[in-house]
Design goal:
The chain is mainly alpha-helical. It is 53% helix and 3% strand. The chain has one domain (3-388): Glycosyltransferase (Alpha/alpha barrel), CATH 1.50.10. The longest helix is centred in the N-terminal third of the chain and has 23 residues, at 23-45.
Length: 390
């Protein structure tokens, strides 16, 4: 009998019997569920060689070979004029747009996430040594490294060479940064490489907090503004930038939670979109990760509540019934990818652990831990929970 089945049965019995479980017990159960999958994915990761943004370049990119480039998902050729600027179809992804760089970053996050998770389980430095090959290629090697900016992300043919909303593509670097954070004390982690990694993320943080694109994205009123805070918090944690960590925490408490959540725990701006289900899940996960990254003994975002009663607990509680069974979803269905959600969402595992909620964890265990749909993966930057539990 697999570990997943054993743990799930145990949790169900405890829930049925009304037995309370300590946070340590629940954390161990999560680790047991993830254990075998982590080692299997790490075996794959050990066989992967680096692929960076320099391996492919779009002729439509206005940047250099070292610049990340992507194109707006919902922009399509004008059916009346092939030479005209692209036109928008909100919620409908154009599969022919350039996505090689985005896929390369996602691949990197999978590789580093798997290697770092396996290192936490086994303490085997072979995972660290292989991870260094990828860190060097992406952030240090002058021939293959990526520039620490996103000036050319989510461009639109015939309209713009890049946009502030393209910064959301960088959330896939979160587990890359977190991987370095959890492996940095290994004797196999070369100190010069670690310094180079932190220098790259320091430069990126300077760009995202001063560039006009970054400022626009920070001020976005929907999931984009939330994801700005989420990624800045993640990278500030790696680089020990206490000023930005404090800024992100205050922004969550004074801007994100008050402006984006309704008093019932829903996210009205996301519910208005053509993919209200997927966007609601995405925003909830992002806010959950902000709480997970920034909370400490002096600043507990998990238990922060606004004057009118908004909190991350209320957000998870609102969406949970529709994660457990989306047939009860009372709003319109997403125009695309309705059948692909939900998966093993971060909000369920971290919320379940923090609030000692066995039901949330049970649902998390039963959902898909290995989604392969590109849209789902793109909106699921945290796929290795073990990295964030230490």
């Amino acid at each position: 009998m697999s570990k997943v089945i054993v743990v799930t049965i145990y949790i169900c019995l405890c829930a049925f019997a009304g037995l309370s479980q300590t946070p340590i017990d629940l954390k161990r159960q999560v680790e047991n569920v993830l254990h075998d999958d982590i080692l299997e994915e790490a075996r794959w990761a050990l066989e992967q060689l680096p692929v960076t943004v320099t391996d492919q370049r779009s002729p439509r990119s206005a940047g250099t070979i070292h610049d990340f480039y992507s194109e707006g998902d919902y922009w399509w050729p004008d059916s009346t004029d092939a030479n005209a600027p692209y036109v928008q179809r909100d919620g409908q992804t154009n599969p022919k747009n350039f996505s090689a760089h985005r896929l390369a970053v996602i691949r990197l996050s999978k590789i580093i996430g798997a290697l770092a998770s396996a290192y936490l389980i086994t303490h085997d430095d072979k995972y660290v040594r292989h991870a260094l090959l990828h860190y060097q290629a992406w952030f240090i090697n002058a021939t293959t490294m990526m520039n620490a900016s996103l000036n050319y992300a989510q461009a639109i043919k015939g309209r713009v060479t890049g946009r502030g909303i393209g910064i959301i593509d960088a959330i896939q670097f979160m587990e890359v940064a977190q991987g370095a954070l959890v492996m940095q004390h290994s004797p196999a982690f070369d100190t010069e490489i670690l310094t180079g990694i932190k220098r790259w993320f320091t430069n990126y943080l300077k760009w995202i907090t001063t560039n006009a694109y970054g400022i626009d994205e920070m001020n976005a009123k929907n999931n984009h503004g939330t994801c700005w805070v989420m990624q800045v918090a993640s990278f500030a944690k790696l680089t020990n930038n206490d000023t930005l960590l404090t800024f992100c925490s205050e922004r969550y408490k004074t801007i994100l939670l008050p402006a984006q959540m309704e008093v019932d725990g829903s996210f009205p701006l996301e519910l208005k979109r053509t993919k209200p289900y997927g966007y609601s899940i995405f925003t909830l996960d992002a806010m959950t990760m902000i709480c997970q990254i920034l909370s400490n003994g002096k600043n507990d975002l998990w238990n922060f509540t606004t004057a009118d009663g908004k909190s991350i607990h209320k957000g998870i509680a609102f969406l949970y019934p529709y994660l457990r069974g989306k047939e009860s979803w009372p709003y319109q269905h997403d125009v695309m990818y309705w059948s692909n959600w939900p998966v093993a969402q971060p909000a369920l595992v971290f919320g379940g652990l923090h609030y000692n909620n066995v039901s949330w964890l049970k649902t998390w265990k039963q959902l898909d831990h290995h989604p392969d749909n590109s849209e789902v993966v793109r909106n699921l930057p945290v796929r290795h929970p073990l990295l964030w539990l230490n």
